[in-house]
Amino acid sequence: MQSPRFFAKPRATGLQSPSSPIAPPLCQPPLSSPVLFAGRNAKAPSIYIFSPPSEQLTMQESATITCLVKGFNPPDLFVRWLRNGEPLPAGDYITMPPVAESQPAVSYFTYSSLTVSGEDWRAGNVFTCLVGHEQIPLQVAVRLLH
């Protein structure tokens, strides 16, 4: 069985869709139990990306970029990071397991943090947080330009 391939669909002005599938490392098996949560409680996530804190940038050693994903249901999702459109190894970032935003659990949130060298940040690279969820097959959340 061939693994599924995802295509990026830009949501911001000035971004271009790739003409071919994203590299295989971004391919993800189907999310578990999509039928279990289908129905009126299914919600697409809101996605926010935050620049490194100015205090961290003044030290010029590293820069931590944070991607906040909230308001989604079911809790199954995945987060991937890209640098200049190229996938970063999963070991370069940390993504927390989803947590219920309220009780009963109607929606969930998670965050992912990517730490890069100060040199990598100052080079003006473009960092992208990709979020996959059954309510949005694959979405380019934000491209952080500087």
Automatic annotation (TrEMBL):
- Which residues does the annotated region (Disordered) include? 1-23
Domain named Ig-like is located at: 45-141
Checking CDD domains in the record gives: IgC1_CH3_IgAGD_CH4_IgAEM
**Mind telling me which SUPFAM superfamilies this protein's record contains?**
Immunoglobulin (SSF48726)
InterPro entries (alphabetical): Ig-like_dom (IPR007110), Ig-like_dom_sf (IPR036179), Ig-like_fold (IPR013783), Ig/MHC_CS (IPR003006), Ig_C1-set (IPR003597), Immune_Resp_Modulators (IPR050380)
Answer whether the UniProt record assigns the keyword Flavoprotein to this protein. no
Which keywords belong to this entry?
Answer: Immunoglobulin domain
Protein name stated in the entry: Ig-like domain-containing protein
Origin species: Accipiter nisus (Eurasian sparrowhawk)
